[in-house]
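user: can you give me the structure for this one chain? tokens are fine.
assistant: on it. calling the predictor now.
[tool input]
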Amino acid sequence: MRLQPIVYTRDMAQAVAWYGHLLGMSPSYQSDIWTTFDVNGAHLAIHRVDGDLANESRVGISLVATDTLEDLLQRWSSAGEIEVVRGIQDETFGRSLLLTDPDGTVIQVNEHG
């Protein structure tokens, strides 16, 4: 069994571009309805829906950074596409920050100490 978080979107092209930039990679599979990114042995799926996103289930997404959070923020903000909801915070496991994607899904990015 493999864990596969699914992000629901109304705009597949926008979501694929955003997540591709965030992850620094191209999708492993892409269609108008379903796209996947292979991320270190796991899969992040994006599914297009035509209805109200409020009626779709939501998932929590946590990414573990391999670069410093400052380096990631600098890279992401240079394209002007990343909305930071909460800046870098000290946590019991290391540090984290919160972002939102274009559909409002909150993503936590962790840097383990």
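assistant: here you go. Residues 12-23 form the longest helix (12 residues). Residues 29 and 36 are 5 Å apart (CA to CA).
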